C-alpha cells in the first residue's frame, strides 16, 4: 500500500509568535529559521504520531479490495471517495452504499458492508484509491506543546535529531500504531 497527501493543511498548528516566545527570540532576524523549524517540527510530529494534526486530504492506494482496509493517517473525518480501475482500464467510483468508515479503530478502517461486494478490478498495482479527509480544525493542546518543545530543542541545538522526552510523553497518547 502507498499513501500521499493530496491537500496539505492550511498553515501550521504553531504560530511564529508562539515559536519566538518558546525560543525567547525578539525581533525578526530569526523569522526564516523559526518558520522552517515550525514546518519541520510539525512534519516530524505528524510522522511520529501517524496523525494529521490539522485538516488535510490524503490518498491511500491499494492493489486489491479487502473486506477491511486500514487507512494510513488519522484521525479520519470522512471518506471522500473510493475509485478503482475496472476491467476496461477506466477509473470508476465505488458505490458509497457498499462500505462504511470505522473511525473508532486506530488506524481507521474502511469496511465492506454485509451483503455488498466490491467490483472486479484490472488488478493494477495501486489501482484502488481511497481519498479521505483527516485531521482536526485545531491542534490538540498537548500536541501543540510537544511541537513547541521540539522547536525549542532544534533552535537551541541545531544538530538535534531526537524528540525531547517531555514531547514524546505528551505525544504518546496520540500515536497511531498500524
Helical run tally = 4
The SSE string, one letter per element, is: EHHEEEEEEEHH
Number of strands: 8
Give the helix proportion (percent range).
25-40%
Note the topology.
Layout: E1 2-7, H1 16-23, H2 31-49, E2 56-62, E3 68-70, E4 76-85, E5 91-93, E6 99-102, E7 109-112, E8 128-134, H3 141-156, H4 165-171
Antiparallel strand pairs: 1-2, 2-8, 3-7, 4-5, 4-8, 6-7
Helix pairs in contact: 1-3, 2-3, 3-4
Model description:
The protein is an alpha+beta fold and 178 residues long. The chain has helices at residues 16-23, 31-49, 141-156, 165-171, and strands at 2-7, 56-62, 68-70, 76-85, 91-93, 99-102, 109-112, 128-134. The strands form two sheets. A five-stranded antiparallel beta sheet has the order 1-2-8-4-5, with no helix packed on it. It has a three-stranded antiparallel beta sheet with strand order 3-7-6, with no helix packed on it. The two termini are 12 Å apart. The model has no long low-confidence stretch (mean pLDDT 93).
In short:
The chain has 178 residues and is an alpha+beta fold. It contains four helices and eight strands; from the N terminus they run βααβββββββαα. Helix 2 packs across helix 3 (141-156).
